[in-house]
Amino acid sequence: MSQSFDKLLDVRGLNCPMPLVDTRKEIGKLQPGQVLKVMATDRGSVADFQSWAKIAKNVELVAQETETVDGATVYVHYVKRTA
Amino acid sequence: MMEGLTETTWTTGDLLERLERGERFFILDVRNRDEFGRFRIEGREPLPAVNVPYFEMLELGGKDEMVDSVVAYLEQHMANQLPHTLPILSVCAKGDTSEYVSQGLYRLGYASASLKGGMKAWGLHYATRAVVETPTLAVYQVSRPARGCLSYVVASAGKAVVIDPLRHLHPYLDLARSKGLTIERVIDTHGHADHISGGPALAAQTGASYHLHPYDAIHPIDVLPATVAFEPIRDGQIFAVGQHQLEVLHIPGHTLGLVALRLGDRCLFTGDSIFVRSIARPDLGGKAETWAPLHGRSLRKLLELPGRMIVLPGHFASLAEADDKGIFAASLDDLKQRNDGLLVLQGENEDGFVHYLLESLPRFIPEYVDIKRVNAGLLAADDDAASILETGKNVCALSQAYKDSSGETT
User: Fold this and answer.
1) Fewer CB within 10 Å, N- or C-terminus of chain B?
2) What is the mean pLDDT of residues B262-284?
3) What is the pTM of this model?
């Protein structure tokens, strides 16, 4: 998959709730329409990002995928600032 | 009991002690709603609990930092819902987020604690209790309290038999080491549906033999033979344990190959037949109508055993079933007077009892088909997959067993 993005946030190795805390901060710095790629190793982030995106204002979860980096599973979330 | 305005961490061992004492506290569970729905902390009586996913606190609290968001959220949305008269235990999946929530509660003046390791650690907590401990005989009950699973170690003269070992082997290996026991045999009373057996792995690791009734070496729904290596056991077989003996009683019903193990006139390891409050369901093989009459006949056979025998079951549905030492056991005579299923059994003929069984079936758990496959060696599951299959409390008893403990019927 080749989802385009404007900025990369690497939260690999960080435990819940930091992937979402850091994602919210970074989203605030984007322009509307821009996409943040978040790389996380916390598997719980998959369900949490889905549920969070449903209630968060001006945010859309564009795609989710898994990658294998250096033998470790990485959970990737593409988050768009919509307004 | 209040501990003052402290912000502390409870280990899963602390939690179990408080639950066993029937202590009152309030649970603020910040996992997502699906996870809360599948698996929650349950006490002897229902505990007050509320589920607010942490990302809702973060988003609706609206601050950059987690603790600030928690404080803002609680002030705006929950000020009237949290008690100042009880400790509040914050709970999350792995024990990190709940620390932030607990700090937020502390900042607001609540008596606040966080569960160390979260629900993952609680699901993996094991407790070992001595049921019998004499110079020539010991019986230990090894429980996994969050799942309601029970297993046993019978020891005599330095030798041990392990009955229905659960997935993690450390409780049995630690006990054997500390008591100087050689594990000679591992016996599964049946092919389990609700949890992954530690039997084959424990046998391989200790050099013990692994025993299973051959009827349970065929997956009942796939109708395929198990690939795990086992020694077949039969009705009436005797296993020596040091100076004592275990006798096999074939009691089909919950599964076709279910056996109970009788330790003289002292203990009866009933597997999934008689529990403390209830009895086992007969439908997990997909043949409820066919197996229910067998189940009734097997239970009647067990009721003919000496009434002073202590029943040691394979499960519990509520911590309220434990005695004052935290042990899930009762004499057969006692259970004839108060076990829901045995009371019906004693008052009904075969048709009436079968009708009762079929009317009392809880929901079928789809994961149980796969767990039986794993136990038969027909499906592989790594640690992550096994943990997902084993999420939450067992549902091996008839439905009335689940009515009180969570406040909901399964």
Assistant:
1) N
2) 97
3) 0.92
